[in-house]
Amino acid sequence: MDLSQPRFTRHRDSTYHMTPNLYVANCGPAVGISVEAIKSFFSSFGEVAGVHAADKSGSRIIVCFLEVSAAEAAYRTLNGCRCEALGGRILHVQYSEQQQPLKVDSNDSLPVSLFSSELAIPGIYLLHDFISSEEEQELLSAVDSRPWKNLSKRRVQHYGYEFLYETRNVDSKNFIGELPSFVIPVLEKLVKFHGEGDNNSKLVDQLTVNEYPPGIGLSPHIDTHSAFDNMIFSLSLSGTCIMEFRKYLPWHSSTAAVDVKSLQECSSSLRKSIFLPARSMLLLSGEGRYAWHHYIPHHKVDIVRGDGIRRSSRRVSFTFRKVRRGPCQCEFPQHCDSRMEI
Questions:
Q1: Which domain of life, per UniProt (predicted)?
Q2: C-alpha distances in angstroms, 73 versus 46, 114, 153, 170, 179?
Q3: Closest CA to 242 of 267, 213, 208, 272
Q4: Is residue 112 domain-shared with residue 204, that is, in the same domain?
Q5: How many domains does the chain have?
Q6: To 10 degrees, the CA torsion angle through 159, 160, 163, 168?
Q7: Distance CA 320, CA 205 (A)
């Protein structure tokens, strides 16, 4: 029996929109009622085409009948009533409808890499399962116990030095404290990432925590050269996303955030993208850090190799940087604010 999770949605006004599908709460394997028992019982109202999970709880299901009349009979008989045949539980029933397949704009299709080796941008590395699920929950609990600062579309926290969004820089003279103790396990792992560094206390000294609601992304930008050193680490928690990388014509060399539409209209550019799973660590260094804009599309659903992956209710990123103490001497002067003519 199929207990996979199809794309069904409940109707808010169930009495006026009948369908052959019923959403049934307080019923399922998690409350001791087998799928076989559910199908057998609901078959008394009419032929059952399938029983599916409504969500991951195991206590809410979708019963799909072949006929609307069967669903109507079950709805009128069971909604809000105690059902002795299903363990004496009071069932809460609504009509349900299968969602339409996700529409993909073929004009904006871009192959999505799953590994940094497929992305093939020098200096960009992705490590899956950088932390465990338990460590992920500990980090989320730690930041949720601390105050958030509200921006227009997301919330942030800053440690070490505050990131100044107006200038995309930091005030290196305004030290706001050591990095919090709850990130020490992450810092200890950073020194092993791609064999970089030999002292985690010197590797990074600034942390920005971002919380992204569904549909909120990040404008294309290159992290300011004069603000931070070569390596920028980004840990994804709780949710997934696609990150796109773009390398533009020389007249798009500014490190500041730029207009998305104008850049998309630039035909002489390179575009690549990679899927960032929860608990993965991304390293931007070298050419990938200094010469490629990075960008998170403002989508609620990401298309990865033909599959629609809906973003979760929140995605939290921990971005670790090292504040630069002197002018940038990178090999990409056309993108470098330390060497741009004023």
A1: Eukaryota
A2: 9, 48, 46, 65, 61
A3: 272
A4: yes
A5: 2
A6: -140
A7: 7
Same domain, 185 and 80: no
List the structure tokens of 213: 């609601």
The domain that holds 85 is classified in CATH as: 3.30.70.330
Euclidean distance between CA atoms 75 and 71, whole angstroms:
6
Residue 275: count of CB within 10 angstroms of its CB: 19
How do the pLDDT tens digits run along the chain, 342 residues long? 444 444 556 655 444 578 999 999 999 888 889 888 999 999 999 999 888 888 767 788 999 999 999 999 999 999 999 999 998 999 999 998 766 544 544 435 689 999 999 999 999 999 999 999 999 999 999 999 999 999 988 999 999 999 988 888 898 889 999 999 999 999 999 887 655 544 444 789 999 999 999 999 999 999 999 999 999 999 999 999 999 999 976 544 444 444 444 444 444 679 999 999 999 999 999 999 999 999 999 989 999 988 888 898 899 999 999 999 999 999 998 889 887 644
Domain assignment present for 85: yes
Q: Global pTM?
A: 0.66
Token digits of residue 118: 């497929």
DSSP 8-state symbol, 292: -
Q: Does one domain contain both 111 and 90?
A: no
Structural domain boundaries enclosing 18:
8-98
Looking at 98, 121, 146, the residue that finishes a domain is 98
